Every structure is written in structure tokens, then in C-alpha cells.
Amino acid sequence: MGCVSELGSSATGGLTDGVAVELLLARAYLNRVAEPANIPVWKLVRDHGPLEAARMVRAREGGDDVLAATAARHDSADPEADLSAAQRHGLRFVVPESPDWPHFAFAALERTGARRLVQWRDEGRRVRVGSGEPLPPLALWVRGDADPTTLGTRSVGIVGARAATAYGEHVAAELAFTLARRDVSVVSGGAYGIDAAAHRAALSAEGTTVLVSAGGLDRPYPPGNATLFERVGESGLLVSESPPGCAPHRPRFLTRNRLIAAFSTGVVVVEAAARSGATNTAGHARTLGRPVMAVPGPVTSAMSVGCHELLRRDLDPALLVTSAADVLPIVGGLSEVVDGSAGVTARAPDRRADPRAELDQLDPTARRVFEGLTARRFARPDEIAARSGVGPLEVIRALPTLDLAGLVETSDAGYRVHERLRRRQPI
Amino acid sequence: MGCVSELGSSATGGLTDGVAVELLLARAYLNRVAEPANIPVWKLVRDHGPLEAARMVRAREGGDDVLAATAARHDSADPEADLSAAQRHGLRFVVPESPDWPHFAFAALERTGARRLVQWRDEGRRVRVGSGEPLPPLALWVRGDADPTTLGTRSVGIVGARAATAYGEHVAAELAFTLARRDVSVVSGGAYGIDAAAHRAALSAEGTTVLVSAGGLDRPYPPGNATLFERVGESGLLVSESPPGCAPHRPRFLTRNRLIAAFSTGVVVVEAAARSGATNTAGHARTLGRPVMAVPGPVTSAMSVGCHELLRRDLDPALLVTSAADVLPIVGGLSEVVDGSAGVTARAPDRRADPRAELDQLDPTARRVFEGLTARRFARPDEIAARSGVGPLEVIRALPTLDLAGLVETSDAGYRVHERLRRRQPI
Predict the structure, then answer these.
(1) N- or C-end of chain B: fewer Cβ atoms within 10 A?
(2) Which residues of B are less than 8 Å from A393 in CB distance?
């Protein structure tokens, strides 16, 4: 604990703004002492707060589950060293108490985490093997100019195979370039193949790209992508849940994938082998309620098998997308949807009309979509789809009609019933 | 009418067995005098029978619609000449009164035709422009050894672009070869590209292949495929609704497409441009309740645009298939489905058990599938899917379970509630 004074307030000022050093050290300790997305440790922090949770872990309190999860490192973890290393490597340490914590992106993980906690208790505290638990992280290490708080809005996960074909890299680059030009942030991992093709294209479009690494940000993996990490760390955002020095081992890739899903408004799988990392990311996206899209490819290519599996799922099949024009309405805001429809300015809705009569004029699908809206909270198209039982694409097509009719209000956060309808009658 | 005696019974014996010459001549006249799939003419035959219908057309009776449909040829049509030409070219003339009329394949067209008739009356007798009406043909011209009565059972339509890519031809050939080896009849048109690739592969597998031509069978179109027509006419089946000598013009391709759909247990679109002939065939298949499948391809290929459109339809999207193994359970009989599941012979159902208790043990999906069965009539998986609201693939997966449990009976025509359940209680 001797390093705390060395870090000092000026030093931590470069790490994260306006957060007490004790809190940073507690979060850094908790972030190091257990593997990411560990249910007992997350629950401990949730129940007791980070300061008390860190004290309990150090004192070997908190129950058997916590003890098991932290046994390997509860003595060796050295948060001061981690924060110092982060400073040396130009990383910021972002915690939920920081002003730039991506609350919007992690709102879905907070929800799924709470649900998972109940399930975990009900199942006798068994932990799922082989995939990351859908919990928010305890802290993040980041580098770059992009604002983490905007993550999850107007952003697209572009994921796929390391051993991508020329076809896959071409499609990933085409999607990333065009979407980045339209101010959609690209989110991906740091691997060869689809990940790298997407980042490079977004960089060349001078757009924002977000690279979520499974290991510490001082150790770019694979090393051959070190220059790519460097470039993303300058104009975009490098993000990792792993403290500096951490090697990226397999479980960390799976827990990392939930962050890619959380940071994306929707996820596109470009090429993927059967049961691959990309299909794992797609699974996280489904869990979080993010639309999953997949690009088809030749059936003769092993690299398209995973995409075709996603497209033919009986439950929640992926949306088939063939170009950025297909993806934009799904990850963009309402403007993208309305831009695509004719006569937007020509037909002003009659605001004096009786709302009930207006609703009666809607076709059955638009009516169902309207009924899937919430009165006060803005909802995203995928949530409206889930609530209304109407397919996501149909929802996206129906929303401009509702908007032109003056029945909905929109914001970056989605759609809700128009104020004039709410005032006059509860819906 | 002077040629009737020349044809004689021995001559017509080669054309079609056991059908009165007058009937053949009447059908040949009606088949020639109007374009195929003409609603007023079909209605006339339906209401009055072919002999009286032919007399009425010749006498310019039957109403304005019939007159308009037959005005161009009601004098020039020469059924004796058509039957003579057919004999010269080795064709048989098959009519609904013939023992080898494909009643099974056309049952769906009889249903859709009857529905269309009601709609046509309700809409003031307007005729749809640009696509073939879903009516059964009045007669067929055929050549080849394959039995027309088996058409529509264990058969697959493989359709796609003329300007197919090497990828598309490869996939079409692979599907046709493997399915033909498994005794699935291949059905397609006579065009270059996907059609020809499918027929050639089925021929090389020594399977049955059915070529449905838009023009007269004495005029192979395109002429470059004349040898292919020849080979199919030897070991498979050449079929046309057009009398000998008829040139294939565009409307005939569209009306021809409904026959490809009718002859197929399910239709696979391998490569297709947007709004192409193959997507028209897929539309007919949907109308007839035949499963539509599509093979995805590179999104960079214009020849895959039509397939991707079919796969992303909001309503009735095509099933994504990547290999013959995906297609076989959909176009094959129950044996294909059961072959794929483990332990078929090991678990004999206990026939003494109480049926109600057995039903209660089913999972919810299987239970819904069972409830979608009809008691006396055999239903195909796609019909069961429509009745139960369970997806076609899930229906296909659930049926072996129901069969192993002794809850269903099967035949070539599909599935129904097992007799032992029907006897003991009405379901």
C-alpha cells in the first residue's frame, strides 16, 4: 500500500478525473484480484460498495464463493503498481464513479447481471462454464480520444474470423468504411482478419473505431497488430477490462466479447466458422437485446458456416445484411430511417386530429408497433420489437409512419409515445 | 375435323392410354386456342367439361371473357395437326382423364385455382398482369420414362439464373447430384446456367430429372441445350403445357414456372438476380404451400441478390440451405428425418400406454406440432407448420419424436394422427 502517496492526486488526475484515490485503488484491486465477470465478486461490490468489498477480500471475508474466486491473487494483487503501469503506458483508469464511465452501454449489462444473479442463486450458485457471464465490468483501462459515454449509441460491432478470406475482409472493410463515414463508431476486437480489416477501414474513413482487447493494453495481442493498436489508441479508443501486464488467455476473450456487444448498437458477423468467437459475441448481443446481423457468403466456404448458422436459427435468427445501407437503419438513429422514406417534408401531420381516430387509421403492423412503445421512457427498435412481437425490420419500417403521423417522439435513446398523446390520455 | 379418323385408336394409343379420341381432340383444341392458365377458359372447362367447352369456344359462346381469350386462334387451332406433330416427335398427350395425369402435383393448383376464381369474380374479372395464374393446366405434352403421377413427391425444384456464376453452377450440381442419388427427382427449366447444371448432375447421378419447357417440346429452347433436352427425354421427363411448334415467349415462362413449383415437393433457388424468373418460381411455390429454400452467396455477387431477398422477406422468408443434407429432410419423406436421429430401432414405443399421458409428456413444441396434425387426412410438414404456428424446421425436427412415440402415421402424402389414437378418442 506504500505507493498510494507516490501516485498522489496530480498523478491520478491523469488517470481519472474527480474520483477519490481510495476508490481507484479499491477498484483496481478488485479488477486485478479476480477474473473479469465473476458473479460472487460482482455481487460483493454491488452489496457493499467497492471500498468495503476490497477490504473484505483482503481480509478473506465475503464467503466461500468470493474466497475461491480471489484465492490465487488476493495477496499478490498490487493496485498501486497497476495504476503506475497504466500511467507509464498512457492509459486512463475508468470506473463507474468516473464521469466518462459508459453507463449507457452498460445499462443492458446491469439488467442482465441482475437477472443472472437471481438465476445463480436459484441454481445453487453454479457458474456457467465456457462463456462470459453477462455482468458489467468493475473497471476499464482505456486509451484514446473517443468519449466512452457515447458507446452503445450509433455504433456497430463488426466481428468475425481471424482466418478470414479476402471476401470477408473486403466486406468488413466496406461496411466499416461506409458506416464510419456516416458517423457510426466501429467496435471490434484486436485480432487479425475481420477485426483488423474493420478498424483499418474505419481509420482510413477518419471515423471513430473502438478496439476492445482481451489482455492488458500494454501488451497488444497479436503482437503483429501493435501498430494498429497504436493508431486506434491515437484517434479512436482502446479498451480493456484487464489490467496492464495481463496476458490474453481464452476465458478473457469470451468475457471480452460481452463488452464488444455492450458497446455496439448492433453487431454484424461478417465471416465466422461454426461455434466461433464471433458467434459467441453474437450470443452476448442477443442476451443484451442488441440486434444481431450476419453477412452471408459462399456455402462452399468454411468461413461462412457460422454466419449461415446465425441466419437459420429457429429462435432469434440474425438479420441478413448485404451492405452498409442495410446496417445503417438498424444501428443509426431515426434520421437514417426517415431519410430513406419519400415525402417526409411534404406531409405534415394534422396535429388537431383526434389521436384515437389517427390510431384507427394505422395498418395493423404499425398499430402493434405503436402499442409496443412506452409512454415516458425512450425505447430502441429492438426493444419495441420484443414488446410488440413485430419483427425488428418491420418495426424499423413502421416507425417513420408513426413519426410522420406525429404519434412518436424520438431521441438518441429511441422512441416513445408523443407527448401530445400522453397529455390527453394515458396509453 | 378430317384428321380424326387418320389418328385412329391405334395412333392415339401411343399418345395417351384409354382416353376417348374426342376428349383428346377437345383438350388439344382448348390447350391450343388460349394461352395457358387463362381463368375464363379454365372456368369454362370446369363448369361444362372439355367436350362442351371446346364446342362452345368454336361456336363463339361462353361469354366475352372466353371470346377475348380465344379470339386470336379459335378458328386456326388445329388439334389433329397438334396430335400428329406430337406423334412425329415422340410426345405423349396427357390429360386429366389419363391414368398418368399428375393429380398429386396438381392438387395444390386445383385448390389455388378455385380460390383465385372466387377472387377473380369479386374483383370484377380482372386478370393479374405479369405473372402466371395459379391454375392447373388443361393438358400436358410429355416425353420420357419417368412417371408423371409421382411428381410432387420426393422431388426438388432447383432453379436459378441463366447467367449463373461458377459458384452457382457448382452448388446446383452438388445439390442435384446428391439428391438424385437419394432418389429425389430434380425439377427445373431448360435454360443455361442453374437449370442445365442441375439436370446434367441429376443425369450423371443416374437419377430422375424433369425438364419443364416453356415452349413446344419439338423446339428446345435455348437451341444450345437441344442435346440436354434429348438426354432428359430419354431417361427423365420432358414436360410442356405448350403444343408442338409453340415458341417460348415471356408470358409462357411465367406460367411455366407454376408447373415447376407444382412438380416440386420444395423449391431451392440457387442463384438469382433481383426479381428474376427464379424468384417468380419461388412465389408460385409459396402460393402452393411448397417450402421455398435459398442458397446464400457472396453479397458482392449480383447473382445472389435474389436469394438474399428471399431469405430476408418479412413474410414467409425462404429457408437457408447450404447443402443437400439441409434439403433432404424438407423434400424427402419421414425416413429421411428419422434416419438422421439416433436410437430409432432401440426405443420401441409402448403401445399400451394411455395416449393422454403420452401427449402430456411431449415438450411444448412437439405438443403444438401434434395439435397441428389432422385426424384423417395426411398433411405435409409445411401445412402442419402453418396449422400449428411452429416453424417448418422445428416441425421436421419434432415429427420423428412423435413417430417414435407412436403418435403419428406416415405416408408419402405426409403425416396424420395415429389410428390407435383416433379410434379411442376424437382429437
Answers:
(1) N
(2) 312, 314
Backbone angles phi, psi at A405, to 5 degrees: -80, 0
Which is more confident, A354 or B402? B402
**ipTM beyond cut 0.90:** no
DSSP string, A174-189: HHHHHHHHTTPEEEE-
- Cβ neighbours, 10 Å, residue A138: 25
Grid cell listed for B194: 442453374
Residue among B298, B305, B311 minimizing CB distance to A298: B298
Residue length of chain B: 427
DSSP codes joined into one string, A347-394: ----TTS-HHHHHHHS-HHHHHHHHTS-SSS-B-HHHHHHHHT--HHH
Residues 280 to 299 of A: which have CB under 8 A from any B CB?
A: 295-299
- The pTM score is 0.76
The phi and psi torsions of B425 (rounded to 5 degrees) equal -160, 145
Percent of chain A with pLDDT over 70: 87
Going by C-alpha positions, the residue among A260, A215, A271 that lies closest to residue A240 is A215
Cα–Cα distance, A110 to A130 (Å, whole number): 21
Tens digits of residue pLDDT in B35-66: 999 999 999 999 999 999 999 999 999 999 99
pLDDT tens digits along A265-315: 999 999 999 988 999 999 999 999 999 999 999 999 999 999 999 999 988
Tell me which residue in A297, A308, A323 faces B298 most closely, judged by beta carbons: A297
Using the predicted structure, report yes or no on whether residue A330 has a pLDDT greater than 80: yes
Quick one: A367 exposed, middle or buried, by C-beta within 10 A (0-12, 13-18, 19+)?
middle
C-alpha of A181 from chain center = 20
User: Is A299 close to B296, i.e. CB distance below 8 A?
Assistant: yes
